[in-house]
Amino acid sequence: xxxxxxxxxxxxxxxxxxxxxxLEGDGLICMAGxxxxxxxxxxxxxxxxxxxxxxxxxxxxxxxxxxxGEPMLYHIDAYRLEGIQQDxxxxxxxxxxxxxxxxxxxxxxxxxxxxxxxxxxxxxxxxRLFQVSGIGKKYQEIEEVL
Length: 146
Ligand code: ADP
Ligand code: MG
Fold this sequence. Notes:
Belongs to the TsaE family. This is tRNA threonylcarbamoyladenosine biosynthesis protein TsaE. The chain is α/β, with parallel strands linked by helices. The protein is built from four helices and seven strands, in the order βαβαββαβββα. The protein binds adenosine-5'-diphosphate (ADP) and magnesium ion (MG).
């Protein structure tokens, strides 16, 4: 695990830029952290880094939002799925090329590919600690260079 201390939105943007570049158009980011930790803010920054012009909003009431871009961005917020065991077809999303971001990934862990970049955001006073773990070769390499 690598911990990146983030002191501002600008630093969130910088981290998202770096990760967007390292993913090279395809990959899965699994995000955890309390409400208000900054998961959606990071996803917005990632979308911007990928050149997606649409405003990325919290998909809490939609569960999945798809943003058209090169690469595509798939944004899942599993918050409302806590305790629900149901096949919602997310596997198909993870088979797609593009960037996949999942907030509250614990709630759909059963259907998630094991290879992924996990980002746990914790508050530390005014700062945010982005705890990044890469699982699988591609993601381990990303973790190493952060
Ligand atoms: P989550 O999706 O984890 O529930 P949000 O991304 O919606 O959290 O963020 C909640 C609030 O925290 C927003 O008002 C946002 O502006 C603020 N915030 C997020 N990241 C940062 C940051 N790096 N620096 C300062 N404020 C932030
Ligand atoms: Mg959110």
